[in-house]
Every structure is written in C-alpha cells, then in structure tokens.
Design a protein that fits this description.
The protein has 82 residues and is α+β, with helices and mostly antiparallel strands. The protein contains one helix and three strands; from the N terminus they run H-E-E-E.
Length: 82
C-alpha cells in the first residue's frame, strides 16, 4: 500500500512540474509573439520596449518565474517616457 501511495505522490509531483513547465513555455511564447508584432509595427505604436523584467506567476501548485518585456509610452520629440 505504501508503494502505491509513493507512486501516486511521485506521479502528482511530476504532473505539477510538467504543468508548470507548459505554463511557463506558453507565457514565454506569448511574450515572443507580442514582441514580433511590436517589431513589425502592428501593435504598440508609440511604445518602446525598455527591458526584460523578472515576473513570478503564483499558482496553487507553486510559483512560475519568467522574464517578460516591459513596454513604455515614449515621446520621440522629447526623447523621454510619458
């Protein structure tokens, strides 16, 4: 019975890790899609990407650390953030 319990716990841990990794990969892919559209000028006109910041998404199964791009409204004439 104890072996069965350990196998179940291991399976649950593996599924949680797998789900967190899938979520992390989805968020990274989405950030990359947004950046590609930004580079093509299809979205975020008047904004400038200034950096990649760490972000932690909290879920009931644990924290998911990612880096995401930060965009700010930028005034080209005054050369500063709005």
């Amino acid at each position: 019975m104890e072996l069965k319990q350990n196998l179940l716990e291991d399976y649950k841990k593996d599924k949680i890790i797998e789900t967190n990794n899938e979520t992390k990969n989805f968020l990274i892919e989405r950030d990359n899609e947004i950046f590609k559209l930004y580079q093509q000028g299809q979205i975020l006109q008047g904004y400038k990407m200034i950096s990649k910041l760490p972000k932690t998404i909290k879920t009931e199964y644990g924290d998911i650390p990612i880096k995401r791009r930060l965009y700010v409204k930028y005034d080209e004439e005054k050369k500063k953030k709005i």
